[in-house]
Amino acid sequence: MKILSCTQQKEADAYTIAHESILSINLMEKAAGLLAQAISERYDKSHRLVVFAGPGNNGGDALAVARILFLKNYPVEVYLFNVKGTLSEECLTNIQRLKESGFANYTEVSNQFDPPHLGSHDVVIDGLFGSGLQKPLSGGFAAVVQYINASPAQVVSIDIPSGLMGEDNTHNIRQNIIKADLTLSIQMPKLSFLFAENADVVGEWQLLDIGISREFIESAKTNYYITEASEMRALIKPRKKFAHKGMFGHGLLIAGSYGMGGAALLASRACLRSGIGLLTVHTPVCNHDLLQSNVPEAMVQDDVHDRCFAEAADLDNFQAVAIGPGLGQEEITVQALFDQVSNCYIPLVLDADALNIFSSYRNYLTRIPRHSILTPHIKELERIIGRCSNSYERLSKAKELAAHLQCYIVLKGAWTAVITPDGVTYFNPTGNPGMATAGSGDVLTGVILSLLSQGYTHEEACRLGVYVHGLAGDIACQQKGVIGMTSGDIADALPAAWKQLMETK
Ligand SMILES: NC(=O)C1=CN([C@@H]2O[C@H](COP(=O)(O)OP(=O)(O)OC[C@H]3O[C@@H](n4cnc5c(N)ncnc54)[C@H](O)[C@@H]3O)[C@@H](O)[C@H]2O)[C@@H](O)CC1
Ligand SMILES: Nc1ncnc2c1ncn2[C@@H]1O[C@H](COP(=O)(O)OP(=O)(O)O)[C@@H](O)[C@H]1O
Ligand SMILES: [K+]
User: Fold this and answer.
1) 212, part of any domain
2) Which of 9, 312, 386, 470 is positioned for an S-S bond with 431, CB 3.0–4.6 A?
3) Same domain, yes or no, for 205 and 261?
4) Could you write out the DSSP letters of every residue in 416-437?
5) 435 alpha carbon, distance to own chain's centre
6) Where does (6S)-NADPHX bind (predicted)?
7) CATH number reported for the structural domain that contains residue 30 in this entry
């Protein structure tokens, strides 16, 4: 699914109106019908609806919603903010229609605003501003927002919480943004919905398909996508009747150090549960028995060192290599890592301590072969690129790093972002907060290594790996619950995740 900018969303409305023989006011009526339906599904008529409408088409939506729900016998109260004396045409039409419906509980605010009391059973419908917001809210609008936010009422925002920008909120004023419990987003999600720091203003969000032109959406240029199950299903390579293990690659996992053998174990299990033909784990001697007894499917190659990775492995005969889970950062490991990476000629995944080592030796970053996959969580990324003040800035800098190194970056978290060297970002919809547990990332490294070894492209391995890893997390969460689930449960749920994905239509 594409994520378009607010400017493009407005262009999409205009294109639909021009090319699909629908009048702007009728498109708004369609949106309002869906908005009213979604609101009535959540809130029954015992709730008073207090509608705050702004001067543009977001306000127009809100007024139409007010009329529809008033006619369904909801108790409704409307405040229209007409501060400058300029209202959009559709806003004006909907004021008229509201009045014609016999609605009387209408207040037009032009300067002084005497706010209504808002109780905990009231529902505020926020239609102050939508995709037309040009700058942070200030003055009277900021005061209204702060009043609503301070009240105990439930808040439903139309399209986007008023005051929130669709993309970059670096220079926004946070206290002047509506805090919604529910955001009913028209047609497409906004990029800013996917950023952690906006979760408390966006609340839960739901998309409403108002029938914006497919043609426009398909031809619109964007660098942001949300991955869909059907796309991932289509990537999975079918297995032929006469398939043999030599066709599914041989991967090398370089992982584990003294006290962190578990990371190697988790990554190995996940790798084997994702379809690889053969797996060899290169690990210090201290982890030899642990791996042999717990993942008998894997071959173990002992490092020269007892306790840490100390000597680069020979890469002949492997299709892909992953380095990092539980690696440690011993001086001897640093040298071995640089040797390994500098001479790497097969697809490479760098995770965890491998990334931490590079963050201490940033000059060496350019030794990472083009197209390698880096899988940092936020902290690991910021150790490399420096601290960021918000998610938009972090994403922008991650894109710069991906372009500079010509690498893929898998920025992990909720909505994990797969960033390609040419700056396209795919956000992953699967996964849950139960995955915020030790070793989840090691499991992901194993899955990606498995896919690369099987001949999936770098981009496919990242996107499919992240998707199925999140799906396994969701299955583990269903079985064990968000608190009790462990990363071992995620690895164990991988077979069910693969099966479920393959059965997706
Ligand atoms: N037919 C249509 O065009 C449709 C429009 N839709 C709705 O229309 C919305 C977009 O409508 P608009 O483009 O009219 O934009 P908005 O309703 O978001 O706001 C535009 C108005 O706000 C003013 N404004 C912008 N920033 C401000 C600020 N910081 N302080 C004070 N005033 C400010 C602008 O000067 C303009 O008058 C969408 O979010 C969606 O809710 C939907 O109903 C779909 C159909
Ligand atoms: N709230 C969340 N929602 C979805 N996925 C999450 C969430 N928290 C963590 N994850 C996923 O869990 C994994 C955690 O990886 P990482 O932080 O590297 O863990 P570790 O270092 O313990 O192995 C990532 O794939 C991340 O996307
Ligand atoms: K709004």
Assistant:
1) yes
2) 470
3) no
4) -EEE-TTS-EEE-----GGG-S
5) 14
6) 57-61, 130-136, 159, 263, 326, 377, 442
7) 3.40.50.10260
194 labelled ligand-binding:
no
Domain range for 485 is 229-502
Sequence-separated (6 or more) residues with CB below 8 Å from residue 182: 42, 154, 155, 156, 157, 203, 204, 205, 206
User: Is the pLDDT confidence value at 16 over 90?
Assistant: yes
**ipTM score for this prediction:** 0.94
d(CA 433, ligand 2 centre) in Å:
8
- 413 known member of a binding site: yes
Mark out the alpha helices in 151-249 (DSSP H runs): 199-202, 214-219, 229-235
Q: What is the mean pLDDT of the chain?
A: 97
Over residues 142-165, mean pLDDT: 98
Residues 180 and 321 in one domain: no
Under 8 Å between Cβ of 317 and 348: no
Residues 19 and 87 in one domain: yes
For residue 1, being part of any structural domain is answered with no
**Residue 130 counted as an annotated binding residue:** yes
Q: Cα separation of 434 and 279, whole Å? A: 28
Indicate whether 155 and 272 sit together in one domain: no
Q: Is the CB of 356 under 6 A from ligand 2?
A: no
Whether ligand 2 lies within 6 angstroms of the CB of 273 is answered as no
Q: Does any domain span residue 267?
A: yes
Give the closest ligand to the alpha carbon of residue 124.
3
Q: What CATH number is associated with residue 366?
A: 3.40.1190.20
Cβ(29) – ligand 1 distance below 6 Å: no
| 162: in domain | yes
Ligand 1 atom nearest the C-alpha of 59 is 17
Out of 222, 257, 288, a domain closes at 222
Ligand lying closest to the C-alpha of residue 54: 1
Ligand 2 neighbourhood includes 441 CB (under 6 angstroms): yes
Residue 24 C-alpha to ligand 1 middle, in angstroms? 13
414 in a labelled binding site? yes
Residue 155 is encoded by which pair of tokens? 């808040």
Mean pLDDT value of segment 209-221: 96
Task: State how many domains the chain has.
Answer: 2
139 is in an annotated binding site: no
Q: Which of 222, 246, 266 is the last residue of a domain?
A: 222
Q: Is the C-beta atom of 123 inside 6 A of ligand 2?
A: no
Cα atoms found within 13 Å of the Cα of residue 484, Cβ hemisphere only: 5
From residue 56, how far is each of 45, 83, 128, 176 by CA, in Å? 28, 12, 8, 18
Q: How far is the CA of 134 from the centre of ligand 1 (A)?
A: 9
Residue 362 CA to its chain's centroid (Å): 28
The 10s digit of each residue's pLDDT in 165-190 is 999 999 999 999 999 999 999 999 99
- Substitution site in 26, 80, 131, 157 for ligand 1 pocket (most atoms within 8 Å of beta carbon): 131
Q: Do residue 282 and residue 367 come from a single domain?
A: yes
Closest-approaching ligand to the CA atom of 125:
3
Helix residue ranges per DSSP H, 424-486 = 440-453, 458-480
